[in-house]
Amino acid sequence: MFKTIVLAVLFALLAFLGYVSTRESTFAFERSGVINAPAEKIFPYISSFQMCKMWNPYDNKDPNMKRNIMGTDGQVGSVMEFEGNTEAGSGKLEILKIVPNASVEIKLTMTKPIHANNIILYKLTPEGTGTRFTWAMSGDNGFMGKLISVFIDCEKMMAKDFDQGITQLKTIVETQK
Known about the structure:
Blueprint: H1 2-21, E1 26-35, H2 39-47, H3 49-52, H4 57-61, E2 66-70, E3 79-83, E4 90-99, E5 103-112, E6 116-127, E7 130-140, H5 142-151, H6 154-175
Antiparallel strand pairs: 1-7, 2-3, 3-4, 4-5, 5-6, 6-7
């Protein structure tokens, strides 16, 4: 009887792990909002690590986050290492590509709470009398990411953070003199 229970549990575990391994290995999340300002007024806030902390929701999760910026902030190749609490995480950001007043591409390497390599893209496109700000992130889930996504709706969680950041950026830019 005990042997049958152990075999049933092992079979269920193997079936579950098999299911996890068949889940999509890549992800892409994207949110956007219109800011009533020209792109050149918004761009400094998305291209500078120092200015990003004014609106980035992950800085709200840990106001005591340690940051170390290397290189010239706001330039391709500049890096910001960060070490935050369990909500904010730890890792580094590296600016890969900048198109002035249009886009910033950043490599995000997370080291805590789990290891991950993702690409963040901030994009500005004219829309009416304002500018649409798009915040996108994509990457490879790996097995741990697939496992976590079985229990947590990662897209919903990220959408909440992205929406909060877009709202905070909109407020800062639109109230700036």
